[in-house]
Amino acid sequence: MKVNEFKKILKPLIEQTVKEVLLQEGVLSKIVSEVATGLQKPLVEAQTVKPDQSLQKEAEEYEARRKERIKRLNESAGVGKVFDRNQTIPEESSKGALSGVGPRDSGVDISGILKVANGKWKQLAGNE
């Protein structure tokens, strides 16, 4: 038996059975009355809760103490002074290797490289 033939036979039987149960046994009227009573009552009750003034004041004091601790920690670590000596890079239209570098920028100190080599540059470069 194919699925379509089975559906043609079974569908009317199920429809008839559901109709009989809903109408004859009063199930439908009970469902309708339950839904109607449920619609009359509010589903969610809204209540406004006022925050306790002492809790709010305590939270504000805690936040102020926290900000003060952070400020003292940053000052002791010197976090605010990190960018004090920075200079703005002048905007230029040139596109060279050093475009965008300020004229007073001393660059990177490479004197330590000379100490590492101890005058043996040619040997390190492989020329000797």
Protein architecture, described:
The protein contains 5 helices and no strands. The protein has a domain at 3-40. The protein has helices at 3-24, 27-40, 53-77, 111-117, 121-125. It has 128 residues and is mainly alpha-helical. The N and C termini lie far apart (95 Å). Helices cover 57% and strands 0% of the residues.
Unreliable spans: none
Name the quaternary structure. single chain
N/C terminus separation: 95 Å
Total of DSSP H or I helical runs spanning 4+ residues: 5
* Class inferred from helices and paired strands: mainly alpha
What is the strand content? under 5%
Features:
mainly alpha; single chain
Write the layout of secondary structure elements.
Elements: H1 3-24, H2 27-40, H3 53-77, H4 111-117, H5 121-125
What's a quick, concise take on this entry?
The chain has 128 residues and is mostly helical. It has a domain at 3-40. It contains 5 helices and no strands.
